[in-house]
Amino acid sequence: MNFAWPIYQRLASAFPHEFKLAYGDEMLQAGEDAIAEIARRHGILGLLRLLLDLLFRLPIEYLNEIRFDLPYAVRTLLKSPGFAVVGIVSMGLGIGLSTNLYTTALALLTRPLPGVTSPNQLVTAETAVSFPYIEHYREQKDLFTGVAAVMPGIEFNVALPGQTAKPDRIYGQLVSPDYFTILGMAPERGRLLSADLDRTGNVPAVVISDRYWRGHFSADPDVIGQAVRLNGQNATIVGITPPKFDGALSPNPSEIFVPTTVPATLAPELANDVLRDPTAKDFQLLMRLAPGISIDAAESALDGITRRLDKDDPFAPSQTDKAKRLVLMGAGTRVPLPREVRPKIIGFYAFLMIIVVAIACLNLATMALARGAGRRKELAIRLGVGASRFRLVRQMITEGILLSLLGGAAGFVLAWGLTVWTAHTRQPAGSPLGPERSVDWHTVLFAFVVAVLSGIGFSIFPALHATKTDVAPALKEGAALQLSGHKRFGLRNLAMGAQVAGSLLLLLVTGYLVLGIMKSNTIQTNFNPRTMAFLFVDPVRDGYTPAQSQAFFERLPDRLRGTPAVTSFALAAQPPYLPGDDDNFQLTVDDAHAATPVQKGVFKQTVGAGFFAVLNQPILAGREFDDRDQRLDGGPATGAALPPMPLMLSQKAARALFGSGNAIGRHVRGDRRTWEIVGVVPDIKDASGMTQAVAWLPLTRHEFAQPPSGGIVIVARGHAAEDAIGGVRSVVASIDPNLTLFNVQTLSEYLELIRGEMRTALRTFGSVGLFGLVLSAVGLAGITGYAVAQRRKEIGIRMALGARRSQVLGLVLREGVWLVAIGSVVGFLGSVALAKAVSAITTAFSDAFAIGVDDPRLLIGAPLLLAALTLLACYIPARRATAIDPLKALRQD
Amino acid sequence: MPHPAHLRSFLPLKPQWFHILLSLAGEEQHGYGIMQEVLQRTTGQVRLWPATLYGSLKRLIEADLIEESHDRPAPELDDARRRYYRLTPLGREVLDAECARLQDLVRAIQTKRAMVTE
Questions:
Q1: Which residues contact A198 (CB under 8 A, 6 or more apart)?
Q2: How far is A61 from chain B, CA to nearest CA, in Å?
Q3: What would the pLDDT profile of A590-601 be if each residue is shown by its tens digit?
Q4: Would you call B82 an interface residue with chain A, using a CB distance cutoff of 8 Å?
Q5: What is this structure's pTM?
Q6: Looking at this predicted complex, what is its ipTM?
Q7: CA angle A644, A650, A655 (to 5 degrees)
Q8: Which of A23, A369, A548, A783 could disulfide-link A492, Cβ–Cβ 3.0 to 4.6 Å?
Q9: CATH code at position B58
């Protein structure tokens, strides 16, 4: 029975200090006296009841104590409104910005997909695979409870029957019918796709997102069962996804989900028998791991299976190639990230957020330290009349948390405003909708937790520092005593120096990114950019048969040539200057003699006849594609020996494959066929400022029959871009007035579109950098102001003894200058180290860092800007010091 | 019978407050003594567990219903760690008011029961 006594003692000692002071001994004694009697009378249940009583009262007593702290904290803050306002603004900026970073970036990376059951069991592969492979994976029932095939980011034309207006062009996903089963999702209305109901040959059933339903059908409940024209074919809407769900595996929202069992006439992506062709690697995987299976186990098993399947594919890497065939990554979040990159990217954002909040905290801590010195008398009196140090510390932390919560509320409003503002900025035409960045209870919780933690964080050291007061001298000499000013490395100066360093670090790191992004954002054209326009057309998704579509594209060039408004034009599968990823197309030099053939991943772009002429782009060697190439059949190779197709390379790609040797006439293999190099063009910077190794494929009858998901773009130039648009429109209308021209835009509009994402990044990073600047200025002004206020007496004496104004000014400024100088050096070194470290571990930011890091404007400008601002912040209170009237100052106290 | 306004806010008294005030009605007591007294008076039915007891004593002092007494018992019976409590005039008033309220209640019950059994 004596197990209860030590627990009783332990619990009793956990009560608040004030309570223990009054009743601690008695409660112990009462327990000691009663415990034997309770055990005798009630047995073990009685003892438990005794302990539960303590456990239950413990929080009540604490709440009771805090109940007194809170009104006191409110009164103290009201008494120094200046401190309160600066504190709330600082914390508000800090919490607001970190909350904004959270909603714009981190939430997309870390929040589970909405409406999905156990999202952490979902995995996908880093690379696309073919449908027959997926069917093999599906047989691994001990590894996966389900495997779906997904083509994300597919465009669809949607029209209501009888609708006369042009159809909507929306983004959706082509998914195998088990997609929603694997996600474990329940429909908001109607039904979702299922393997049993959505079989080949049935009337195509599609599911729309809740967002599309609300936006385009005004949340009409009768939409279930509604017939629609999808890419010109009949389909039926059968269900609506849960709110906020708009597709797995893609950051951009999908508004419609179409099963892979629909005919290829509805979804041209399914043409060429891609569902049966084991070499058509067009699908993303979406798999749910079986319970107890780790991602590593699943990966190595799948890798083995893939390796076996690859044996039958002549274009797969050779069997001796040790590289992994399949790398898995988690798919339970909005943006799936490769496993080794994920912690680094999340870490970078977390680091930014921590720095932002830490600077705000340091700012408040320095001010609280200064204020603690001013409160010495109050604290000494309270200590003198018997308050415990713990009690005072708790009181000051309560004040800190209160301040920080008020700041958190302000910050939340700021973050909310930023989100609303971002949501209302116009999306350029034709760009996929941005992911919905909403402020919800996660965000509130996030801001609240940050506020409480930083409230404790910034007040604990100043509180401990201030309550170390020696009672007697403090009472005698009062608040005006200046002690810490002469300690060069006092806690306060350390905090202030750290703040300057942190601010500069933040300013520089974000500056590198901003400058890097801005610089890379200027493209060079060999022509007046105001003369070019893009118009997209997609006859197949407007209901044409492949043959009709081919016929249209064969007539189009002749008609355009006869239009004076269009001075030059070309067709392509994508607009020029598109930023890309340079390993989506693997090329191997066809050289029978080489032991290890040269291999290079390049960015594949498909362009029609005269494409480079429209860009005014001279050809380095060979020729560019002409009408003969545009009349080739093209299309995927069937395995039979085919004549080589013409291919053009950018200079960078040619050099990578052939060194300095001549590339013209050489053969390369890639994409299951052989290509003959017919031309080399100079490197062209894309819209994000990068120069990619590019392989230019000819646009052929194959693309005309089955335009890629984005349609075919007509790149046209006229005297002005608008003339070209008008010319193309009238030509297309004269061929078929019902054909839709979509994403019609000038080159400048298109570049805006590409830069939209960058602008968001610029805004985010820019505001973070500016925030640091403003905060450290505010902090320095605050701390210098306090120092001046405390040294009134000293300054008064000096002035009475004949010190000149400039000497007083120098006295006050000197301390600030030292802090700024030391802080700047540390911050500068830190930022260079950080930029290097971040670039080394992840390529996600290295391009921007690489461009921004050497910019002299930044390297010299940022420290100077910070120094100027912070010195100004010191100067204003310092000048106040010179206005001190010696007589008044000396009469005080 | 309506109670004066300054008493009304205390009524009805929380059971543990009532028991503590009742224990102190006769004589000054220390905490453990109150616990024992209540236990005996209710023949073991009501036990004021230590944390509840001292928490309540703290609230009663804050509410000015009881106060610490500085009259100590004879040194041979005294324990320096113990503190003694007594009713304040307000505490006595509140206790009286609560007793009156309870008596009214009992009377009402008896009347009702008489009507039922008749």
A1: A177, A205, A259, A261
A2: 7
A3: 776 766 778 888
A4: yes
A5: 0.65
A6: 0.84
A7: 90
A8: A369
A9: 1.10.10.10
